[in-house]
């Protein structure tokens, strides 16, 4: 049934002498959108769409007001408003600050894209349909991940702690005219944004700008709120709406990456399949960000390095993307004082838990029957003290501590979930002089409690390497990880950067040593069947030392000098050279050139050292040894160049991005990289060995004509091929891949020096299961920044456990 807006739009189009196609082209919206608006099938135009239509029709101010008013009046009570672009709260919703209408409910015709008030309806095209399908897959992946995370953190056991908020101080909020997207000259008033956890999506949809800042002191529930926002938003999300995705903004350096590029990188890291090139060569992750199909939920603005918060806020103000941002109040206020508030953003501040909240929650987290009373619990005495003597020294200190969900959950873990623990000890003023001591006590005892010995009769009980560890050792290793993150100034515990906390010269030397030993052993093992032991020992030492020098130098200049970590591969080996896998051929030519140059440099150096062995071992004259070294340098340089170049190019041809639906966990990404490196080794080692070995044999004839008679046999060719294939691939893998660096530094060097356990993966997975760590896509994070700070402080003040 045609509405007032439909009739009016059709009349104005006829008066302008336009067809539906002409209006769609001029307004840059889809023809289907125009047709749906005029027939009434699409009864939910956004403010932005209506304004684009008004501009395209060339309406005078009176006609523009009439069209906008018709769009507003079509929203009857109970219908779903347009979210952040809600006409009822927009520039045309009236001239006062009346409270907005009811929260969103489902309608037969969902809004085009309620989370993108600044993005017009995109023209219908196969590309848009493909991006919509990919966004659906992303939405499913995000929902699955955060649903599991909520369950793992026992958010609903027995029920979510109440998280409430009130409007933040006006000086931290932009002008309400900007938040409401009002035109010049319109009167306005503040929106009513008070609410609680299950209202967060409805509150967000009342904000026409789609920008909200959530402020809260440490442990006040900001992370719980972001997870609930994402899950509730996805439940009510229309197909064309943006997908809310949580990003830990603390890792962003706005001076190095633009905001959109950083979002793209984070999406690709957590969803490697989105690295697939789309139309125009850009990745699917970039296309989703650029078309506004991702709603950034930015958690932890306060975790950005102190000197980067101002440029970060300025960079956010340079974009018009809708977003939700969380921060501690002091850090956000300091950034605002240096520059400005977040443009067009409303702000709310989380409030403290009340005594009634504690009285409802804590007794339900533990067993009944305490002290002979069937309905009593261990918390009764504590809650009675807080209720009856709130002004006492003990009651006042404990009440101040138990006002945040973080401290309540820690108290629950230490006392409710542990047999034999009496929370009445928290009221002992001789042990705890004030709130600070109580908080430190809960933080310290949390790790002790979660690492208590596991009963053998429980599932997974019994000794397990890297899992059943002494609490003191566990605290020390966790402290090293916390201190590692503090030094890197990031909340993200990335397995491929575990070695980055070491000094750069140490990393380069350890890498060179690992390659040296590996190459020396391979050369010695292969040559032991063909050459005298005396010669082979010297040749193995020379090959190892030179390989270590070359790969160590390469690692230094490519990564260590820039203090960068080797990124994990977002590809896998695909034996289909043609078809989809063949797209990687675009990167084959540059890798071919790189392989030729690197092979020439390595081959000449190794060949020269190989030739000079005649002088060192057999005491031939130096001029002869020098001549032999130069000849061998040329021979090996050409051979390795012609072997390495094609091998590098073939590797590029056989790489294909991971599946679009692949959303990774930290250990999943590690396993994927291990499989990728193993597949590359099994493929590349034989190819490289054959190219080098048989290439050397074939080139001896032409090179003999140029350089004179050369001593060469088929046995020497086979030895060179096998040694190069095995040693070269292993050296490359150890020095220049993320999995190799993980193996050298995190699996060998750090455990060898006592800073991490030998079973690092098992330890990290177990810490996640125990609730010390949490997963954020492809990385781990500590359960809370306060816990990380506490463990890092304790580590710096401690000695390694025996």
Automatic annotation (TrEMBL):
Region Disordered: start-end pairs: 74-126
Transmembrane parts of this sequence: 506-529, 541-559, 592-613, 681-700, 720-745
Top-level taxon of the source organism: Bacteria
Keyword Transmembrane helix assigned: yes
Keywords: Membrane, Transmembrane, Transmembrane helix
Alphabetized CDD domains for the sequence: HTH_XRE (cd00093)
Name of this protein: NACHT domain-containing protein
Species of origin: Streptomyces luteireticuli
